[in-house]
Please model this.
Amino acid sequence: LLGAPYADPGGALDVGSVYAYSGADGSLLHRFDGEAYRSGFGEALAIPGDLDRDGYADVLIGAYLLDFGPGSYSGALYLYSGVDGQLIERFDGWFDGQRLGYAVGTAGDLTLSGSPEVLASGSGNGSQGSWGAGTAVVLLDTALPTNSDDDVDSVPYYREIALGIDPLDQDSDDDGLGDGEEFLGTSPYISAPTDPALVDSDGDGDLDLSL
Model:
């Protein structure tokens, strides 16, 4: 993955491009183009893993100087599919001068959902308006369209897989408490979160429901 932030795709001056080449034979797989003059598109890039959970690694590109108004420079992140090169999502900076996308990467699987979260920095102003203070941002995978909850128990599908419980069963251990009630500790019958994979989380001989 190679960035060329001053490339002129289609004759558009200094818009920037990123090129994905095959590690097997060196052939060009995808070209990703920026959308604005000198936005910094391609100065920061990463292969964060399979964020959209289609089995293939995706591409993350920063454009920290993307300007949404005269001198705003709030910046943006672009997430592209590693399969067909299509744009999955653009995450825009949310205040003037943030310059989000100065550096990009992955924070690991912080939410135990089965896919990593996105980590990015802004080299400009802080969130409280402090000039040049900078920001660091973690974008949770709840922003992505595949964070489903098929059994409607308030625990996302891939987090249930990570916990070792059935993502299609609302009460995996059949103890009378829903998986979400146990994992989140929201049941009126328990005083603290319990293990949705165990009928007796504390080993006292009684079901979790009787705690």
User: Anything to note?
Assistant: The mean pLDDT is 85. The CA atoms of residues 12 and 120 lie 27 Å apart. The radius of gyration is 22 Å.
